[in-house]
Amino acid sequence: MIRYLPHPVPTVSFLLCIIISGFILTTGVKYLLSVLLLLFFAFHINGKKILLTILKIVIPLCIAIGLFMTFIYPETERWVTIGGMRLSHEGLTAAGDMTSRIIFLFTGIIAFFNLITIQRLGSYLYQKNLPVWLVFILINGLKFVDRFRAKLNEIHFYQQIRGMPLENVWQKWRATVKILIPLLYVMIEESSNRAIALEMRGFTATAQRTALQPDIQTTTDKLITFVFFGFIILLLVFGFIV
Amino acid sequence: MMNISEYLRTNITPPVFSLMTVGVAVNLGMGQVVALLKIPLYLDSLGTVVVAALCGILPAIITGIISNLLASAVFSPAMMFFIPTMLVIAILAGIFAKKGGFLHWWKAVLSGVFVGICAAIVSAPISAYLFGGITLAGTDFLVLYFRATGQELLQAVLYQGLASDPVDKGITFLLAYAILSKMPRNLLLRFPGYHHLQPRNQP
């Protein structure tokens, strides 16, 4: 198992490459590349996690699209019979194209978020002198989701102890407002305290920033970025011009 | 004339970016509120709408983009492709807030319905051309129904969006109005958009 985690720059160039390829490459190539990507990431990073996400999200989505396209396709002119079932020829082609694009794009995006952590991306952006608030939102956004859930359960629990009724639509509506107001109030207070603490420690200063562990690109990172950008240019030239 | 970086530096103050962080968390966490109270809606743009009302268009746009990016990391990669829809919601919510859209509950509902119609128009081509109209949501059966009646894919997805989005956004805006009107005044005073939430003859 290789233990190389790329720098944010080649990782973002990989994502760009995936998104552009998803709209230009042909159906067969996309299916093939998806399998290769999956195999590569299965050995390289957390393959089990990627596979689980694909099984839970991508496969059901593709099955639904496939069924939808092959059975209900109003523009059908030709029908084919496979295993005794009458399927739309045009629907099959459209389903193939769409599912290949979804499998390819989703595999790439899931791999991207497994290659890079939001924290590392935020840290790199901070070192590159991006506004501190942008980095603050990016890094704290996910942390606050966990805090939001914990606080939500807490407030919901205490509102239920108080006897909050949840039987009809009107009661549910009132309960939503009653839960959200204290929840937002607490969250805004907590976030404001963090923001003030950051400001007091000089995070918002405009001078050149320094870091204890600077995120520097290695030669391998530069080479990977170069390869991805080269591939994007080739795709654009051959995809649109030829 | 002020350039964008200068505008961001002077307008995105600590209270604003702390609210933007909360807006992102609300957008991502509303799914759980909806599941907990068993409400058949998405309400996934509530955070963006609240930020637009209290801080303006640009902070709402940034909140929307970051929410969808993080949602593609946490929930489904499909969310990344719906960033344009969130942009439309953020821009229109900001404009309506400036025009007094959150002064009365009926104005909030009307603004929400209009935003819902625009959101449906923007998300229809994304949903149709990228996912064939199927997003594994409860509203997929509407797309199936419209397709079965002989409508083209884009039309079927648009009709489905027009049937569900205005209701969802109308309720989202009404919820935002209810929250903003009941929030303590000392908290709302920290944000630049506070005066848009007050009738003109009031201080």
Helix and strand topology:
The complex is a heterodimer of chains A (242) and B (203).
Chain A: H1 8-24, H2 27-44, H3 47-71, E1 79-82, E2 85-88, H4 89-115, H5 118-127, H6 132-161, H7 169-200, H8 219-241
Antiparallel strand pairs in A: 1-2
Chain B: H1 4-11, H2 14-37, H3 46-55, H4 57-74, H5 83-98, H6 105-131, H7 140-148, H8 153-182, H9 185-188
Helix pairs in contact in B: 2-3, 2-4, 3-4, 3-5, 4-5, 5-6, 6-8, 7-8
Helix-strand string of chain B: HHHHHHHHH
What is the total tally of β strands of chain B? 0
CATH class of chain B: Mainly Alpha
Mean pLDDT of chain B: 86
- The overall strand count of chain A is 2
What oligomerization state is this entry in?
Answer: heterodimer
Helix content of chain B: over 70%
What proportion of the residues of chain B form beta strands (DSSP E)?
A: under 5%
- Largest sheet of chain B at a glance? none
Q: Biggest interface in this structure? A: A-B, 59 and 58 residues
Rg over C-alpha atoms of chain B, rounded to the nearest angstrom:
17 Å
- Provide the β-strand percentage band of chain A: under 5%
For the record, the CATH architecture of chain B stands as Orthogonal Bundle
Structural class by helix and strand composition of chain A: mainly alpha
